Amino acid sequence: MELILKKDVQNLGFKDDVVTVKNGYGRNFLIPQGFAQLATPSAKKVLAENLKQRAHKEAKVVADAKALAETLKAIEIKITAKAGGEKLFGSITNIDIAAALANAGQEIDRKFITSGIVKRTGKYTASVRLHRDVIVELAYEIVAEKA
Question: Within 10 Å of residue 142's Cβ, how many Cβ atoms?
Fold first, then answer.
C-alpha cells in the first residue's frame, strides 16, 4: 500500500514522503491517526506541485540549520552529576543534554537529540537532528560534582 505521510513518523519517513507499508498498518493505524493519506495519482500530482513550490523555502531552512550546526559544534558542554568514583548516581539522558544546551543559549527540543543513557563520567557524543538533511554530532563531557 502506497501512502503519503502528512507528519513525520519515526522509523518510517518524514512529512510528504511517499512510502510503501503493509495494508493493515496503513489502514488501521496511519490513516485513522491522521499520519498519512492514500497515494492516489491525483494526490501525487498535488504533492509534486507543493514540493516544487516549497523547494526554495526549504533551501533557506537548510542554510539556517547548517549555521546552527556550526554554532553547536563550537559549544563545549560539561554536565555535572553526582557520582561515586566514575559511576553516576542516576543517569544522563537527552533531557539533561537539552537543558545544558539551553544554559549555553541554544534551545533544542529534546526529541531531536539522540544519545544513549549514560551512567559513567567521561566524554560522549550525541547526535542532534536539526533538519532531515542536517544532523550534527555534539560532543559533551560528564564530570563528577565536587562536594
Answer: 22
